[in-house]
Amino acid sequence: MPLRFERTWIQGTGRFLPGPPVDNDGMDAYIAPLTRLSGRIKRRILAENGIRARHYAIDPEGRTVHACSAMAANAIADCLADARLRIDEIGLLACGTSGGDALMPGFASMVLGQMSAPPMQTFSSHGICASGVGAWEAAAASVELGSHAHALVAAAEMPSRLFKRSRYAARGYDADFDAHFLRWMLSDGAGSLLLTSSPQSRAGVRLRLRFMHQRSFSGDYPVCMQLGLTPDRSRSHLDYASWQEAEADGALFLRQDIRLLPHLFDVGIHEYAQLAKDGWLEPERVDHFLCHYSSEKFAPVVDELMHKAGLSIPRERWYSNLTTRGNTGAASIFIMLDEFLRTRQVAPGQQILCFIPESGRFTVAFALIEVEAADVPGESFSFRPAGIPMPAADDDVIAPPHDPADAPEALRHLLAELAAVWHSYRSRAWRTPLIRKLRERRFDQADYVRWMGHWIPQVREGSKWMREGAASVLPPYDALRALIETHAGDEQDDYMILFEDYRKAGGCVADIDLLRRNPGGEALNSYLHALAATPNPLGLLGAIYIIEGTGQRIIPALLPLMKVSLTGAADGLPADAFRFLEYHGANDEHHLLRWLRAVEIVLDHDADGAGARAIIDTARRTAELYLMQFEHITP
Questions:
Q1: pLDDT tens for each residue of 510-540
Q2: DSSP SS3 for 347
Q3: Which residues contact 392 (CB under 8 A, 6 or more apart)?
Q4: Which helix (H) or strand (E) segment is 304 a member of?
Q5: What are 285-337's pLDDT values in tens digits?
Q6: Is the CB of residue 324 less than 8 Å from the CB of residue 296?
Q7: Is the Cα dihedral 545, 547, 549, 552 positive or negative?
């Protein structure tokens, strides 16, 4: 649930960017390419991220010019000047960073000491991009509750010290792509906000904070961006006899697993859609969208996902300074907000929406700011609680396993309900023991063989219950029968591909008839056969939605993790032991377009809504049984 604010305003903003801007050619003086491969990576990454200038707090010799805490202090000084307040009027200092100057004490304490500021409450938020938002929310809550009249927020980042050429020398400059990637993405800087319960006019307007929302998906996905673990995430730098050994083994490289990044925006836009559905924001009322993305490559991704959800914000309302200020992690949203407010005119009634995704282990955060006239009391926030439906035009929430952008309006409510079922299922699936082993790089050949052995007999039954269901279809749904028959025909031989994969992976059962479903697979099979035998089993479309969605959205994300775990060693599995998984990731999207047409046939004759309810209920039950199957794979 988002945190709602009624009595908290932004009184001032500030930023500090060290040294002169460094262009792409000038980067080599600070972050030199290590090898010929490194130079190619640099050109590729810069072409994609669109960054043309950034700032570094080190000099070309690698010496620190501005400490991280000093940058935060400078941003705070700029903010205090903008707010026209003194440091001794502040009751709380909340700071966020992914890595300050010291491992201990907390970053806020170091910043307070750097400023030689008077005693006050401090709060340190540690993480990556969302750590600054964590500090912001803590400070805002203290003001809203009346604990403090004024609170300062600051975030600072100084990754340049991690990227110096000398740090890679211990491995002879031999670093994997994940360790090269961020050298060309991140830069240094700090930003600050001053929050107050007694706002003063700022060019005739006030900036009222309306709500903040943070949600972490760390329990669902593997680590995506990390510092302090080995490349396979199996060992901490603290497990080594010395930090020198840890550095030599690559445990102190800042790494990004770019293969996981698309999932961050998927879950982020779902949260955005849920906020809209629950009435916390209305996209058409958002006048300025400040989106923190790490690369210009991701801007059209976010835009497309919003468009598919029917909740787009026109691109002319977007604001980003990524290309000229660089990606400064936790400080980015504060640097962006400060520059936006100093260079753009805002007017009473306008809304500013901030979106901050964090790739560390996937956290998404939002903040909504409303501009109000300085001499007019702010209107109360018209929050529409969950459970009260939005107008039909706003109810188009994307159901991630397919693209409903071109779907008729009649489908939108059904897709919204299925989206909620899907995201709950997806989140729980990523936390099952099997997928946890994959995430933690503990998945081995025996796990793969066991999974295939449990899965083959279930896949084998798929075309059977589909054909039983088609035979049970009665008028007026005759057209549905042919679609289900076609789909069953496509699926009928898939289990043989899976069985061949099983044998190539070392499966010892030679007779396919001897393979048995686990309890979850048995329950799912019994449920679907029983449903297929009933007249007009329309709910089977809900089962297909979950099963095909798994093939399109979850399996492609698991496949690279499997290949890393199972094909690297000399005795690893052959590349053609994954044909079934590769096939489904590439073809299930086509299957789901057919599913969309089948749902339209049901809704054409669904005056009382019974067909839609059956699809939703069956999707929910199928998700539960599919999860049970996952739970029983790992002993």
A1: 999 999 999 999 999 999 999 999 999 999 9
A2: coil
A3: 409, 412, 413
A4: helix 299-308
A5: 999 999 998 889 889 988 988 887 788 999 999 999 999 999 999 999 999 99
A6: no
A7: negative
**Tens digit of pLDDT for each residue in 434-468?**
888 887 778 889 999 999 999 899 888 888 999 99
Which residue do the tokens 């010291």 mark? 102
Are 322 and 50 in contact by the 8 Å Cβ rule? The answer is: yes
Residues 6 or more apart whose CB falls under 8 angstroms from that of 385 comprise: 278, 279
- Check residue 534 and give left, alpha or beta (phi > 0: left; psi -120 to 50: alpha): beta
Q: Of 158, 150, 142, which Cα lies nearest the Cα of 58?
A: 158
Residue 176 reports pLDDT greater than 50: yes
For the question of whether the overall pTM of this predicted structure is more than 0.85, the answer is no
* Token pair 């060290």 in the structure block, residue: 18
In the block, tokens 């790089």 appear at: 441
| Residue 590, token pair as written in the block | 């086509």
Q: What is the mean pLDDT of the chain?
A: 88
Amino acid found at 153 = V
Look at phi and psi of residue 280 and say left if phi exceeds 0, alpha if psi is from -120 to 50, else beta.
Answer: alpha
Q: Single out the residue of 212, 203, 191 nearest to residue 96, CA to CA.
A: 191
- Asked if 618 and 543 count as a contact pair (C-beta separation under 8 A), the reply is yes
End-to-end Cα distance, the chain: 36
pLDDT at 591: 66
Place of tokens 């042919």: 482
Q: How many CB atoms lie within 10 A of CB 468?
A: 20
Q: Where are the beta strands (DSSP E) in 102-249?
A: 121-126, 150-157, 189-196, 205-216, 225-226
Number of residues that make up the chain: 635
- With b meaning 16 or more CB within 10 Å and e meaning fewer, what string describes 267-293? bbbbbbbbbbbbbbbbbeebbbbbbbb
Which H or E element spans position 364?
strand 363-373
CA distance 409 to 335: 40
| Domains defined along the chain, listed by start | 3-373 (3.40.47.10), 409-631 (1.20.910.10)
Write the DSSP assignment of 59-107 as a string of letters. -TTS-BSS-HHHHHHHHHHHHHHHHT--GGG--EEEEEES--S-SSS-H
